[in-house]
UniProtKB/TrEMBL annotation:
Organism encoding this protein: Actinokineospora soli
Tree of life domain: Bacteria
Protein name: Uncharacterized protein
Annotated segments matching region Disordered: 175-201
InterPro entries: WH-like_DNA-bd_sf, WH_DNA-bd_sf
Amino acid sequence: MRNGIDRPRFPARGRGVFNSAVAAAAIGAAWEVGALDHLDQHGKLDIDQFADDHDLDADATRAMFQALAAAGIVERSDVHVLTGPHFTETLRARSLFHWLVQGSGALFAAMPRVLRRANRTGRFYERDAAAIGYACREINARFFDPVFWSVMSGLDFPSPASPTWAAAAANACWRSSGRTPAPPASASTSPPRSWNSPRPN
């Protein structure tokens, strides 16, 4: 108790869940503004300089790195940020976090409403299609393509001569699973026209 006020106790496990929830949002943000790539290339950055170089609010940028530090993704050292013990695995999974929070966060926020049967009519939830598409390009390249092409390489098929062959093979896989054909490759490689936010390459 301090100054007559009984400060609430937050169990360590609860703090971990809370910090992880905030860090999940910070991961997607750090990817978008280029912080994860900068740290991957240089191992260190000056927070205020990075904020100034990317036209970011300095206080908000420090808060983003604090959220990442609380989850062990980065380490703070005075005005600098260094890669933390969980940086490498987070870097690899960053698109999954982006899909989860930036892409689907609105759905999770609406969970109390969408749980009710009376509300589950028509288009009863929304997700950010642009953010999902942005994340899914890297998710596909890092997690699905290697498995797909590993399987394909073991089949007795001729080598693909063009992207059209690859698209046809993908659609064949979708049909064999009982699903509708996948959209053309070009449909998933560029963000929707309605999306005006700058994203890193």
